[in-house]
Amino acid sequence: MKVVTFGEIMMRLMPPGYDRFCQTTSFNATYAGAEANVAVSLALLGAEAEFVSKVPCHEIGQNAVNELRRWGVGVKYVLRGGDRLGVYYAENGASQRPGKIIYDRANSAFALSTPDEYDWNALLSGADAFFFTGIDPALGENVSRACVDALGTAKKLGVKVFCDLNYRSKLWSKERAREVMTPMMKYVDVLLSNPPQISDVLGERAESDEKLFGLLCDKYGFEAVAFTGRDSKSASVNGYYGRLYTGGKTYSSRYYEINIVDRIGGGDAFSAALIYEMLSGVPAGECVEFATAAAVLCHSVTGDFNLVSKDEIGLLATGDGSGRVIR
Amino acid sequence: MKVVTFGEIMMRLMPPGYDRFCQTTSFNATYAGAEANVAVSLALLGAEAEFVSKVPCHEIGQNAVNELRRWGVGVKYVLRGGDRLGVYYAENGASQRPGKIIYDRANSAFALSTPDEYDWNALLSGADAFFFTGIDPALGENVSRACVDALGTAKKLGVKVFCDLNYRSKLWSKERAREVMTPMMKYVDVLLSNPPQISDVLGERAESDEKLFGLLCDKYGFEAVAFTGRDSKSASVNGYYGRLYTGGKTYSSRYYEINIVDRIGGGDAFSAALIYEMLSGVPAGECVEFATAAAVLCHSVTGDFNLVSKDEIGLLATGDGSGRVIR
Amino acid sequence: MKVVTFGEIMMRLMPPGYDRFCQTTSFNATYAGAEANVAVSLALLGAEAEFVSKVPCHEIGQNAVNELRRWGVGVKYVLRGGDRLGVYYAENGASQRPGKIIYDRANSAFALSTPDEYDWNALLSGADAFFFTGIDPALGENVSRACVDALGTAKKLGVKVFCDLNYRSKLWSKERAREVMTPMMKYVDVLLSNPPQISDVLGERAESDEKLFGLLCDKYGFEAVAFTGRDSKSASVNGYYGRLYTGGKTYSSRYYEINIVDRIGGGDAFSAALIYEMLSGVPAGECVEFATAAAVLCHSVTGDFNLVSKDEIGLLATGDGSGRVIR
Amino acid sequence: MKVVTFGEIMMRLMPPGYDRFCQTTSFNATYAGAEANVAVSLALLGAEAEFVSKVPCHEIGQNAVNELRRWGVGVKYVLRGGDRLGVYYAENGASQRPGKIIYDRANSAFALSTPDEYDWNALLSGADAFFFTGIDPALGENVSRACVDALGTAKKLGVKVFCDLNYRSKLWSKERAREVMTPMMKYVDVLLSNPPQISDVLGERAESDEKLFGLLCDKYGFEAVAFTGRDSKSASVNGYYGRLYTGGKTYSSRYYEINIVDRIGGGDAFSAALIYEMLSGVPAGECVEFATAAAVLCHSVTGDFNLVSKDEIGLLATGDGSGRVIR
Amino acid sequence: MKVVTFGEIMMRLMPPGYDRFCQTTSFNATYAGAEANVAVSLALLGAEAEFVSKVPCHEIGQNAVNELRRWGVGVKYVLRGGDRLGVYYAENGASQRPGKIIYDRANSAFALSTPDEYDWNALLSGADAFFFTGIDPALGENVSRACVDALGTAKKLGVKVFCDLNYRSKLWSKERAREVMTPMMKYVDVLLSNPPQISDVLGERAESDEKLFGLLCDKYGFEAVAFTGRDSKSASVNGYYGRLYTGGKTYSSRYYEINIVDRIGGGDAFSAALIYEMLSGVPAGECVEFATAAAVLCHSVTGDFNLVSKDEIGLLATGDGSGRVIR
Amino acid sequence: MKVVTFGEIMMRLMPPGYDRFCQTTSFNATYAGAEANVAVSLALLGAEAEFVSKVPCHEIGQNAVNELRRWGVGVKYVLRGGDRLGVYYAENGASQRPGKIIYDRANSAFALSTPDEYDWNALLSGADAFFFTGIDPALGENVSRACVDALGTAKKLGVKVFCDLNYRSKLWSKERAREVMTPMMKYVDVLLSNPPQISDVLGERAESDEKLFGLLCDKYGFEAVAFTGRDSKSASVNGYYGRLYTGGKTYSSRYYEINIVDRIGGGDAFSAALIYEMLSGVPAGECVEFATAAAVLCHSVTGDFNLVSKDEIGLLATGDGSGRVIR
For residue D169, with 0-12 CB atoms within 10 Å meaning exposed, 13-18 middle and 19 or more buried, which class applies? Predict the structure, then answer.
């Protein structure tokens, strides 16, 4: 199974423990980005994951590549050039104090890369699936056009397309997002997005989630729609579950109560595990249990990347959430 | 708005994470003290906060000053001299294991400073409020007399006085505290203290909190009495709320369940926010919600200082305790 | 009170915080092992604790000795020689992600030590109790025979024997464990083990715990049987309690809900506190409350060793689990 | 003595110890920039130092302000707005391996600030000196024009101007630097720059340093020219000295051999100490000894800021370089 | 250029900074081993480097693989199985205190791997060179026989063989080393070893180094012999140089004085760079300058791996050892 | 061999690496004091070392005891009581920047302990030697009188007395020191002090060191006088040597050039090693080589304690200062 993901990889700078930005004297550096997160999860699950992106030709850029390589992601399609690697600062929340993210990603090597730098026929050759998110086109005209090229080629080559709407209000307006994303939907096979975001970006609403998803599948030809839900009791404790709509039916995962170590990346862990299971032909009910278990575990791992194994996810998905020490 | 606070600033030495004193090989150093904590909160809220104290003329003493300056507290009234900066060792509790504090504050530069070193007419000139706590007089005769001088001058200059009883059994007996504190009460406009402490220090009891506060306001002419309550389920989880009695009525905050990062300083955060709101003329109900939200957030921040912004407090005070990541 | 414990001490290597093995760049090093853990607890409680073992003649081996010495354990019976100190890698679990242990203890100095190296008449002279666990014989023929020698000598010298079955499937099969452990039981005065483990190792089952323990006491002449129970809600939150069966009756501790800092070593903390209390002639009900409180506190301390004082255990055992800061 | 400095403050991210960019998992964060470095040194020396700049309205921007405030620099002229704080990554060199710096400062709040945001009449009012460097105009047209405005106002108000040419090839070409910097020279009273840089930027050369400086003083009316020289034996050991040309004579400092802790900021430490001494009316020979001693000490302090006291500099300047422990 | 290296990869555990084993509470973990070190250097230089080895199927084993992958080493020939990853503990020396290494590598997955697990025809197919060291056969009969198989296949396939004698007295006696290594020499094309080691292992001596190397080339058909020399002034400062004998002539590098950050791995860095240069057809004099520069830089990098770029080595090799900061 | 040392043990708080007091956010905690340092060295050399002191009954006090116990020092004579453990803050120097120490030791449990708390007949029973330093009496009347008691008892019991003058100007004046120390000299067998200090405290001067020592031996009956000399080139590099005068002759050690890791404790390491060697009956020339080698190694170890083995000292004393890695 070969999956190509296309997106930005950033350096994530985080104060240690629960330190706030204002009090830290150091930052832990990891590497992250929705599409890179998905690629790492896929590689850890055993898929051949190729990451398409661009990073600057200096040590910080190379660090991002080395980190992907460390986890087994293919990096031969990562272009070099441009001036900077995007950065995001993340502050861990706790109890009633929310986590915080400050983006410093403008003018990154990836955001300024141009459509002609990507030869999608080559990049997608032999791929089973292509994954991108709404963050890609939100980075600007260049990346947006590169997405359109990728989608056309994917369709042509019979590569299945997974898209996470991933709306980010800091990057663009809902209006602009709708304008750009809507025409892309016809190329998408599986949509990852929850009802409020679907309303914001695609402008679709319905009286129930199931009706909404049915409507979307009819309109855009989606094979499936999936999302995760979160009951934010506090920054430390969340309720969590996943949903998958396909073949006219909704499949729900178990409901988890999570003591959070690191909130970021859960949705990407879900996407990756869902892609892996769907491409493996697993039944829908198992798909959503597995993908949700992956996302739940991601909350217990520092960093965006979901550094867990297929066996660990499987154990939780099939029911053991006791957390007993494995000797 | 200008507020003068008077008290000791100490170095706080804490093992990292949940390490116990007996196993640590290093201590994180922050700077703390009830009145300094209040000054920092006030400065972060936007008030002009002046801290009156004394520290030794060496690097450890200067560190305390630099740290106050960093957060915008005025330090021009911090005297230099004496031999040592008081120190307190703090061990974080967890679950059924309580936190622990070992004080090593005797003979500090501040405790040995003399009343004639403080020119209260100058120090309080232009101030809207003066804040001190029962720790000040507990440090000994010298500081106690300086407090009396300050109170007299405050009254004379029309500066509103806020006092936190802050009884510390390691520093003095209840009897001695009562003897010293009671005569000071007539200068106090707003008392910060809970019923058990009021009973210990002022010797007043009543069949209900409201009656007790009414009685105190009658007896000492307090404009208001306020306190925070804590249900200590364990060292990790606490229930928490605030109360403000004024104009014959009691105003209560929402009730919070807190996952604790650092327990120390919550009461000071409450005091500071209450001072800020009361001086701003905010209605009593909003005052107590805001002050309690400030105190709640303080439990999520390492160190005594409540390193949060007015906006962050406002957000929680007006209802969003979901802890969702702010991007 | 003098207690001799016999077993392996290992270096425990653990990534900081909640980091996973796969992402860590450093390991915190502590020293651990069921019998060493018990010795340290006993020394901290005030008993004379002698540890009998063998470590290699290099710095890593000496570190283990120094660490025991630091906590007041007698180390004059720790032999030197062999090639390596056993190591175990421990990864902290969180929420739904279980903790993990990787053992690398084969061929340790202790596992390869021979029965003739231990002069039990000297080692047990003047001792009130001897403690060992099922891990000892599981390390191989040599240590197994040394245990048999020790048990015979203990009986001869009137030294009370405490044994924790401590079955480890990575070290031996249930069949082999049963074959080796069963004949040792006649020397044991107090058995520490829960019903499932008793079934696995001793092959005994009954319709209730009380009946099972009665049956064991009859068959092997145990004075008492005790164990701790754990409701693993997740790797972060556990329910916990202790039981002691003696004189035909079962005594239960209070039930605790624990927010876990470090899971490992709780059972050993229980054993040590129980030994201490039983040898002190404390009534059974108090024994189990005290021992369980010790085990509960152990969950709040990083490392295997239960670095708490007798007073701290007493405070929790007699009812104060509020975790309020002790100033 | 009041000195106004104008420039960018950046966050400096550095791997711990001698770790390379490619192997680090964390960065120590300090705040830096030639003009900010000078402001901090001046404040530590006892001058009133005001820093004029612009930082974004988020926590990372505020950190830069808090850090300046901590050391006593006036920050009331630091504007807020824009999107990002410039960042530079610094890798410590060792032995034959050179240190490395990666700049990521484009599009910073300061670089994009416009001349009309700076009211120089107010900003320079009451100042004794104004300090800027060639980095300012190198950041672009906007800052360049702001410099020209500042210089005109300084001249008008009789504020003495100190300028460090500080040529950075990553920011602009020599040709562009010459074009922009040359017309500014007529406003400058004291030039800080070495002969090779003078040749690059101002295009002036002479057969000896003394002749070159004489020529410059004649041409531009400089009161003095000063610089530090470095014999780079390796990244760990450097020879170091200072020179000051004024009144037709060259004054040289002692020659130091330095074991380097942190190379960056030495020149700024020299500039600040020289400004302080010259404004204090100290004789030229003492000025250069003091300023060089300041720069030498800066090599022993981690971070750009020269966190040393006037007394410490004085002690070294007057001859004690023994490094004996001060008890 | 494709180079296959065959050997053990271990986890290296090192106390931070200059801490001694006896005082450390944590170990920094890196991964190392002579042949792995060479593979990483080759990958960083741009060669296709394949590492042949065996690691256990658990996280610690996988970490070693991930780390190699991170630096671009091919890991598809790393077998899985066995029980443990070898470990070595390293203590940094300083001044007159020597560094120390404690090996705990017996019974590793690699040491117990059997010759039949390695299909050398496949492993060496397409390779330009094969690298192994005397540590391989020192690990025991199994690995020794695997080496013999590899050497035969290399000869058959025309793959050039580089061998570092790397005698380790902790692993085997000189006599046993001579017995095993001597027959392997006829397969070796380039020998990496200094005269004392050659005397110990191969039993050859001569009145000058040049005569010794001539004799060896005659006897075994070596194309070249090379080594590095070290003048150990202290654990902090070493003199260092390289020598290459080929075509009847000796080529010497410049002489360096090094301030040491981390001593270990320098020889492997030399070997890798020499292999790279010789396979690239670079003249002998340049080869030895480049290889020595690589080894010198390795002393400035923490960990065994020589994490430097080809450009950085080239810069030093061609003469710039000033260590000036690169901006 | 049993040696009793009498003195204060303090907590030493030091910023990590070369961080200055003013910039640190944490302190590494070790335990130290001249007499405790000597006790630890003696224990590591294999002597029975008993430490006589007093520490407070809280965790910080117990930490000091645990640390001594860890290194094998006898602690049964460490009294409990009083309020605080003395603290000293130490800042590492580098290059031209001197190290710095801030003492905060007044009113420690030890300084306030009274002569009647020490039963010298019991404490010194069976001892071969007694060691104290001039810091003891400098702490005040109480400790001073305890010293006099100890000296009398030592004489009576035939216990050899070693005294390091250790003059500290922060604790007392030269005049006071002379008044107190001079009468103690008649009890001293071996004096550890250099000529300038002898002049300051004992008021003795002579035209050569040898004459001075001869004069002292005549006057006070010293068996020997010894000291170490230091050429402080900078805080990073020192020349170093030892001298021992006995039997009318001066014995000098080799001269070392040291790259300093941690300067503090070198003199105590010398004293301890000298005591050990002299009590072992080693010839004077070997004594001073061994003692100086111990002191030299101490400069390479972080913390006051000289954590080196007898073998390591012996290796350096007999000539190997190459610092080559020991595998």
Answer: exposed
